[in-house]
Amino acid sequence: MAIQAWLMDDCNEDPRLPHLGNTTQFVSLDQLAELGVLYWNLNPNDYENDPELKKIREARGYSYMDVLDLCPQKVENYEEKLKNFYTEHIHEDEEIRYCLEGSGYFDIRDKGDRWIRIWIKAGDLIILPAGIYHRFTLDMSNYVKLMRLFMGEPVWTAHNRPQEDNPARKEYIKGFTEKTRVPLAAH
């Protein structure tokens, strides 16, 4: 089953709500790929032995991984951490997340600076390119178990917006202006 994504409404209610709006505009996998977002649907029940995951990790150089259980019972300062995740930011490296259990939302900015909400569930692996403005929150389930993948040692430094002079952001924008962005085939 393909991931679901849509343009968010402008409502300031609880960020864990879907924010579909009155006239929902869904966003396709092709539209996400145009923004540099890659997606796979894998078997989360066999992630330790999954040959498809192994193939992705080898092809993209993801040598490090860890697993994060994000819920009020397992995370100290849960509300504060969730607020930090929901602050708009970029990273200087790709953000790779594989949902093993539960669900949550990654919000990314489109070319017109509108929010696109991506609902990830068990089996969804997404890659956000370096330099893309994004944020994360749980949905109303208040639980997600994510595998985080990295090239080499893990680096998770968020650079809050604005970051227009950040080299990663400049490179991301350059990919649109020069039309050189060719995403790895995903499904």
UniProtKB/TrEMBL annotation:
Membrane topology qualifier: Peripheral membrane protein
Superkingdom of the organism of origin: Eukaryota
Residues making up the signal peptide according to the UniProt record: none
This protein's GO CC annotations: cytoplasm; nucleus; plasma membrane
UniProt entry tagged with the keyword Cell division: no
PANTHER family: ACIREDUCTONE DIOXYGENASE, ACIREDUCTONE DIOXYGENASE 4
Cofactor note: Binds either 1 Fe or Ni cation per monomer. Iron-binding promotes an acireductone dioxygenase reaction producing 2-keto-4-methylthiobutyrate, while nickel-binding promotes an acireductone dioxygenase reaction producing 3-(methylsulfanyl)propanoate.
UniProt organism field: Pisum sativum
Protein task: Catalyzes 2 different reactions between oxygen and the acireductone 1,2-dihydroxy-3-keto-5-methylthiopentene (DHK-MTPene) depending upon the metal bound in the active site. Fe-containing acireductone dioxygenase (Fe-ARD) produces formate and 2-keto-4-methylthiobutyrate (KMTB), the alpha-ketoacid precursor of methionine in the methionine recycle pathway. Ni-containing acireductone dioxygenase (Ni-ARD) produces methylthiopropionate, carbon monoxide and formate, and does not lie on the methionine recycle pathway.
Coiled-coil positions: none
Pfam families the record matches: ARD
HAMAP family reported for this sequence: Salvage_MtnD_euk
CDD domains, per database record: cupin_ARD
Record: residues binding Fe(2+): 89, 91, 95, 134
Gene3D superfamilies the UniProt entry points to: Jelly Rolls
EC class of the enzyme, as a word: oxidoreductase
Compartment(s): Cell membrane; Cytoplasm; Nucleus
Catalytic activity: 1,2-dihydroxy-5-(methylsulfanyl)pent-1-en-3-one + O2 = 4-methylsulfanyl-2-oxobutanoate + formate + 2 H(+); 1,2-dihydroxy-5-(methylsulfanyl)pent-1-en-3-one + O2 = 3-(methylsulfanyl)propanoate + CO + formate + 2 H(+)
GO biological process: L-methionine salvage from methylthioadenosine
EC code: 1.13.11.54, 1.13.11.53
Chain positions recorded as Ni(2+) binding sites: 89, 91, 95, 134
InterPro entries noted in UniProt: ARD, ARD_euk, RmlC-like_jellyroll, RmlC_Cupin_sf
The protein's name: Acireductone dioxygenase
Alphabetized GO MF terms: acireductone dioxygenase (Ni2+-requiring) activity; acireductone dioxygenase [iron(II)-requiring] activity; iron ion binding; nickel cation binding
